[in-house]
Amino acid sequence: MALRVNALESVLVDKGLVDPAALDAIIDTYEHKVGPRNGARVVARAWIDPAFRGRLMADATAAIAELGYGGRQGEHMVAVENTAAVHNLVVCTLCSCYPWSVLGLPPTWYKSSPYRSRAVIDPRGVLREFGVELGDKVEVRVWDSTAEVRYLVIPARPAGTDGLSEEALADLVSRDSMIGTAVLAAR
């Protein structure tokens, strides 16, 4: 696949259809400016800074912007928090609205019709397929992203992580945990 991509890129550049500098800028954007690492930093900050967590829960768009993240599909953000009593799951039932600036490109399964319909109809079944088993007393809340609002799940902080730095905490956070299809454990 990598060879095919390189060959296609070479042909497009040679024919003058793609500017290599523009291509480099796009790659840099997705490697360094948008992506799940940004969201992981937001989560880690919320775990260690109660004032930031409060701002995040009150106005996620503004709090996320404090860390320098925003832009394409990162506006109108709402943060929802997983607890021992509540587990949040994000879906976009109409298309694939997704906060690119904090989570990067959406996974293929997020855009699939089966996920989009079943997440609403049978969220516990979908979560089980992702390996997430929740107790009967845990409430599952499903949030439907739209062009007007996008959600970021703040996963529960794993036990035994009290002494970790913000950077080490961010390393524990996965994209799927910020969608709600994974539960974090200390590594």
Strand and helix map with partners:
Layout: H1 2-14, H2 20-33, H3 36-48, H4 50-58, H5 60-66, E1 77-81, E2 86-91, H6 100-103, H7 108-111, H8 113-121, H9 123-129, E3 139-144, E4 150-154, H10 166-172, H11 175-179
Parallel strand pairs: 1-4, 2-3
Architecture overview:
Helix 3 (about 35-50) crosses helix 4, helix 3 crosses helix 10 (about 165-170) and helix 4 crosses helix 5 (about 60-65). The chain has 11 helices and 4 strands. It starts with a helix and ends in an 8-residue tail after the last helix. The chain is mainly alpha-helical and about 190 residues long. The strands form 2 sheets. A two-stranded parallel ribbon has the order 1-4. A two-stranded parallel sheet has the order 2-3.
Features:
187 residues, mainly alpha, two-stranded parallel sheet, 11 helices, 4 strands
Summarize the structure.
This protein is mostly helical and 187 residues long.
- Report, as a whole number of angstroms, the end-to-end distance: 32 Å
Radius of gyration: 18 Å
Give the helix proportion (percent range).
40-55%
Based on secondary structure, the structural category is mainly alpha
Strand tally is: 4
Strand content: 5-15%
- The low-pLDDT segments are none
CA-based shape: globular
Order of helices and strands: HHHHHEEHHHHEEHH
